[in-house]
Amino acid sequence: MALLEVRNLSKNFGGLAAVSEFDLDVEEGTIHGIIGPNGAGKTTLFNVISGTYRPSGGTVKFEGKLIAGKRPSAIAAMGAVRTFQHTALFEDFDTMGNVSIARHLHAKETIWGAILGTARKMELANEKRAEEIVEFIGLGEVKHELAVNLSHGHQRTLNVAMAVAAEPRLLMLDEPVAGMNPSETAEMTDIIRKLRNEWGITVILVEHDMRTVMNLCEHITVINFGKKLAEGSPDEIISNPEVIEAYLGSDDILGEDF
Q: How far is CA 46 from CA 17, 33, 43, 248, in A?
């Protein structure tokens, strides 16, 4: 059984089918890429899986449990956590503060915990875990910098750190290297690999940067006009004539330097 199973998924907006009869399996322990031309339906697919949109048809299962139609917070609580194209940070808090807040949203504190004194123990544990995440993800040097003053690359990395603070089994990254320079892109690629290799987090990502996808993902699914166009390894995808045609008819969709 795949960690994430999508079957016959559809999402319609009026008479327009943004996603149509889409199937997807994401195996545990993999880094799985979703690619496609602009307007292909990638973000809509992510929005349905993560609960932002309700599906028009089909099913989505996480760990064998139906999640289609559930609220995003409920899906995140089950262990499937999503980032967005645009960073959503608490700009007046420092790096540690942002991750600590994300940890508090994950914590199960109760009024009885406060009465019995366990809430303070949980708070200390959350602070310790937040610092572990900040250091692991490479933000230790800026852990006391206000989020508003961080570079674009560090803000994007902090966005991922906040998602990781929710202790996901499945991390859904929406354009994780958008707007990054080559150095920042390389650092983010390394972070994603570390999250999978060392912390065992399965990753599914939507990304326009084809070099990043091809270098990072073991398995790739291509969506075009809301339907699955192709699926396979990077080598299989890059040599697929239908994929090449979908990307503006170019015979080298990655450019000369790949």
A: 15, 12, 5, 23
Q: Which domain holds residue 219?
A: 4-90+167-246
What dihedral do alpha carbons 28, 31, 36, 37 form, nearest 10°? 150
Residue 85's pLDDT is what? 67
User: What residues in the chain have per-residue pLDDT under 50?
Assistant: 110-112, 114-115, 251-252, 256-258
Identify whether 124 is part of a domain. Answer: no
Task: Give the residue from 176, 9, 8, 18 showing the smallest Cα distance to 82.
Answer: 176
The residues facing 63 across adjacent strands are: none
Q: In whole angstroms, give the CA distance from residue 33 to residue 203.
A: 8
Query: Which of the 8 DSSP states describes residue 171?
Result: E
In angstroms, what is the C-alpha Rg of the chain? 19
Greatest alpha-carbon span in the chain: 66
How many domains, in total, are found in the chain? 1
Is 16 contained in some domain?
A: yes
**What's the pTM value of the predicted model, to 2 decimals?**
0.88
- Is 69 part of any domain? yes
Domain assignment present for residue 47? The answer is yes
Question: What is the residue whose two structure tokens read 């999503």?
Answer: 82
The domain that holds 33 is classified in CATH as: 3.40.50.300
**Token pair of 86, please?**
């645009």
